[in-house]
Amino acid sequence: MEQKCIFCAIASRQIPANVIYEDEKVLGFLDINPLTEGHTLVIPKHHVENVFDISEEDLKHISAVAQRIADKMREAINAEGVDLFQASGQAADQQVPHFHLHVIPRKTGDQLSLHEWWVSQIKKVEPEKLNELARKLATEEIKEVIKSEEKPKPKERSKEDVYWIKRATQLT
Ligand code: 5GP
Ligand code: ZN
User: Fold this and answer.
1) Where in the chain is the domain with CATH 3.30.428.10?
2) Which CATH number is associated with domain 6-112?
């Protein structure tokens, strides 16, 4: 049977991999070029490309499997934490066009300088730009909340106003 891609070939066991998890729908295997020891990829066995075309059900299942693998990493190789990473689309630097969730075990001082890299990439953003982006990305429900917050609120009375209102009512 002709395979669409390298991960389909791994899923159907046409090419070898160090499999650490398998069920009817999902396979977990060690990444051939790991960022840390134990770096694992979790894939659906059937070919879907990325987050835009995987079903919600399959995504939930893969997340649950990743959680089990993360637990196993803590127990079996003393991982202190994990990074979960998923690239979807060429622009996002996805290299293999078959959905895969990276589960990367982490230990203090493991030399994977993700945080340093992250900090080096932070871009400056003005609050107005953040507001504009939030308006564009918000769900319909949240858009309603934003709109209601933007409505001008009744002006609060100052202490002075209250004093004069009291005076006026006492005089009448
Ligand atoms: P991406 O950059 O698409 O998120 O990650 C692709 C990952 O697949 C890389 O970390 C790469 O090392 C891994 N990979 C690519 N080809 C193979 C392979 O044939 N076997 C295994 N085990 N991993 C692979
Ligand atoms: Zn595939």
Assistant:
1) 6-112
2) 3.30.428.10
Cβ(28)–Cβ(20) below 8 Å: yes
Distance of CA 68 from the midpoint of ligand 2 (Å):
23
Ligand 2 centre from 112 Cα, in Å? 28
Q: Which residues are bridge partners to 85 per DSSP? A: 102
**Angle 140-150/127-137 helices, nearest 10 degrees?**
140
Cα distance between residue 19 and residue 10, in whole Å = 9
Mean pLDDT by 10 residues, the chain (172 residues): 81 97 98 98 98 98 98 98 98 98 97 94 96 94 85 70 68 56
Beta pairing class for 26-30 and 19-22 = antiparallel
Candidate of 96, 102, 103 to mutate for ligand 1, largest count of ligand atoms within 8 Å of Cβ: 96
Question: How far apart are the C-alpha atoms of 87 and 133, rounded to whole Å?
Answer: 22
